[in-house]
Amino acid sequence: MDELWFVRPYDFLHDFNSHAEQELYEIGLTVSINKDQLIFSAGSPGEYVYILLEGRIKIYELTSDGKEVIHWFCFPGELFGLAEIVRGGRRTVAAQACSKVKLLKIKHSDFVNYMQKYPDVALRIIGLLSCRLRELGDVITNLVADDVTARVMKLLTRLGARYGSDEGKEVRLNICLTHQEMADMIGTTRQTVTTVLSSLKRKDLLRIENKIIYIQNNDWINSIVDGKIIH
């Protein structure tokens, strides 16, 4: 699944030298957030950049009729709240804790100064934003061009590339999502996701054990990477 490298989680702090990392902590504030608590909402000022240290958060927006559309999930080491670094202004999405989380919040102006001091950080940010734009572009294309079965299959493939581990002929998804969360990522209903997953199980394309999904057919993954769908 190397073709899908661009969607893998990126640990922002992984390659930092100790001095650069310590300086980042010095200009930021470490805070704890309870499950389901909003970190920021759409329309709020983009005053901070965040690095997730522990837990999981989701980035989402609400449609005009109140439907939640999940853009992605962030895991430890990942940054979020970055868009306003480039364009300024108010948030267009919301961030909410999916579990108890700990994060480092850094003032926008302080983070800009930090990037000026460490230009390699700015290059990482550009790469990260480019990857996220590419992923969102693919999601939009899938919403327009694919039927719901294809959308579910492509979602599972993206999750496998981002959070999966190869286990022989299987790919284990190392993330537990509810059917509702999956539905909110591809613009469908919880019941539809349940129906499609049941159909894929009957075709031996995946199995579910202790709420963990295992993709059974590597040919399926390769076919989606190549732009084809196995029905």
TrEMBL record:
Q: Where is the Cyclic nucleotide-binding domain?
A: 12-132
Sorted alphabetically, which keywords does the UniProt record give? DNA-binding, Transcription, Transcription regulation
A GO molecular function annotation here is:
DNA binding
Annotated HTH crp-type domain ranges read 146-219
Among its keywords, does the record have Coiled coil?
Answer: no
Among InterPro entries, the record links this protein to: cNMP-bd_dom, cNMP-bd_dom_sf, Env_Response_Regulators, HTH_CRP, RmlC-like_jellyroll, WH-like_DNA-bd_sf, WH_DNA-bd_sf
Query: Does the keyword field hold Manganese?
Result: no
Give one Pfam family, short name only. Answer: HTH_Crp_2
Listed GO cellular component terms? cytosol
Q: What is this protein called?
A: cAMP-binding proteins - catabolite gene activator and regulatory subunit of cAMP-dependent protein kinases
Q: Which species?
A: hydrothermal vent metagenome
Q: What lineage does the source organism belong to?
A: unclassified sequences, metagenomes, ecological metagenomes
